[in-house]
Amino acid sequence: SGTDQILQVYWGTEHGLKTLKTPTCILFNQKQQFRKFGYDDVMKYKSLPPSEADNWYFFQNFKMKLYNTTKVTSGMELKASNGKTLPALMVFSESLHYLREHALNTIQEASFQTVCNQEISWVITIPAIWSAAARQFMRLAAREAGLASDMISEKLIIALEREVASLWCKQL
């Protein structure tokens, strides 16, 4: 039709919530396999018996670890709520992979058309306070998640949150 449409997504509706943002939480099972993200993750983790929860890997608010860590590397680890660790790259890339799949499914449901990854330019927003190493880490995680075929892909844009917010305000 030539007009741009904005598809508004609400998170947590299946749990009686309706928010524009999902919590930055991810859950891996005892075998270090991705299980849940966001509200689904929180609800699943809270439903686990304490004895079983100790064997799972629950990460929340992990995004700021890239700011609070003095030396960001591709081999760094993140500590789960129970003290167990997993590679940070695995935690971030699985999160991005989940969000990628969620976006593709949402677009397909809204448009009744299948959209392939190559048709999309992905924009990942990050805090301006992050180091160059943290920005590069996000690019690597995005590649691992399937958002880009290589580290210099034109289909992947790492943008500063404040600049994106400014552009959105200008658009409004």
Strands, helices and their partners?
Layout: E1 25-28, E2 34-37, H1 38-47, H2 50-53, E3 57-60, H3 65-68, E4 77-79, E5 85-87, H4 88-111, E6 122-126, H5 132-144, E7 156-160, H6 161-171
Parallel strand pairs: 6-7
Antiparallel strand pairs: 1-2, 1-3, 4-5
Radius of gyration, whole Å: 17 Å
Shape: globular
The helix-strand sequence is: EEHHEHEEHEHEH
SS-derived structural category: alpha+beta
Overall mean pLDDT:
88
End-to-end distance, in Å?
Answer: 21 Å
The helical percent reads 25-40%
Q: Number of helical runs?
A: 6
Main β-sheet, spatial strand arrangement: 2-1-3
How many strands appear in the DSSP assignment?
Answer: 7
Given as residue ranges, the uncertain stretches (5+ residues, pLDDT < 50) are none
- Strand residues, percent: 15-25%
- Biggest sheet: strands, sense, closure? 3 strands, antiparallel
What does this structure look like?
The chain has 172 residues and is α+β, with helices and mostly antiparallel strands. It has 6 helices and 7 strands, in the order ββααβαββαβαβα. 19% of the residues are buried. The mean pLDDT is 88.
Q: What distinguishing features does this structure have?
A:
alpha+beta; 3-stranded antiparallel beta sheet; 172 residues; two-stranded antiparallel ribbon
Provide a short characterization of the protein structure.
The chain has 172 residues and is of the alpha+beta class. Helix content is 38%, strand content 16%.
